[in-house]
Write a structure and sequence with these properties.
eight-stranded mixed sheet, 16 strands
Length: 268
């Protein structure tokens, strides 16, 4: 009997400054996702803490730090708190549509506004239309872009106010990258709403988890992820529920990203 897929070859990136913890150095181990079994491999690697970026699966492999911890929300157990319920009601008029992973000018314009406001000096600040197309369209797995629009008027789709690149895995949804309207007068809490919509979407379709990438204790940029309970983290004993201290202040929510030394977008 032949194996379901050939054991992948893994590589390691060159160490570079950590974007989350000052004074630390990051390094990643990665492998290529290709061929007819790319989806199965991505699912298997996702269960042990890997993330996907285009046709690459990667995870942190730092020499002197283990702060990056994979986290996932248990979709069936999620019960929004009072603040989250208020956001669900506020944005209940939005029209969410799962679209094929093809880029549009409207999506790119929204991304540019988001990056200029939230991450002006980040690794994606110089992303152009071709980089964006690569991020969205270069996928060997089951992927879609969930668009969030204002209500339809007279048959005309409303304005695009949010989007999330999402992988549909065998055990859940993996949020690869989300972005949303941040200009003056924009709706509050869109980032939180997009995460909750994915959690509820997973629960409705009997998918047990929503993968949020990595949580970094001590990094203010990552603390928003622990607001979605129940949440599990991956440790030496496997996936286990945990209850971290609540963030002191509400951060600007959005799935974040970095860029490795080779220029490949690596989304946390």
């Amino acid at each position: 009997m032949s194996a379901p897929f050939r054991f992948p070859r893994f590589f390691v990136t060159t160490p570079s400054p950590c974007p989350y913890l000052p004074g630390k150095t990051e390094r990643k181990v990665f492998t290529e996702l290709s061929g007819t079994n790319a989806g199965d491999l991505n699912d298997a690697l996702g269960r042990i803490g890997f993330r996907r970026s285009q046709s690459v699966a990667y995870r942190p492999s730092c020499l002197d730090c283990t702060a990056c911890v994979s986290v996932r929300v248990v979709a069936g157990g999620f019960e929004p708190n009072a603040t989250q319920r208020k956001l669900l009601r506020r944005h209940s008029d939005l029209v969410a549509t799962a679209c094929k992973p093809w880029t549009t000018e409207e999506q790119f314009a929204l991304l540019r506004r988001y990056l200029s406001t939230r991450h002006p000096g980040g690794g994606m600040a110089d992303m152009d239309e071709f980089d964006f197309a690569d991020m969205i369209e270069q996928t060997p797995v089951n992927t879609y872009v969930v668009e969030y629009r204002e209500p339809t008027v007279d048959g005309v789709p409303g304005r695009l106010v949010g989007a999330c690149l999402t992988d549909h895995q065998s055990d859940g949804l993996s949020m690869i990258y989300s972005f949303f309207e941040t200009s003056e007068g924009a709706r509050d809490g869109l980032g939180t709403y997009i995460i909750m919509d994915h959690i509820l979407r997973a629960a409705r379709t009997a998918l047990p988890y929503v993968y949020l990438g990595y949580w970094v204790e001590g990094s203010a940029r990552m603390q928003y992820k622990t607001r979605f309970q129940p949440i599990e983290r991956l440790g030496p004993a496997g996936w286990q529920l945990f209850d971290p201290p609540a963030p002191a202040a509400a951060p600007k929510t959005g799935v974040s990203a970095g860029v490795d030394p080779k220029g490949v977008t690596l989304v946390h």
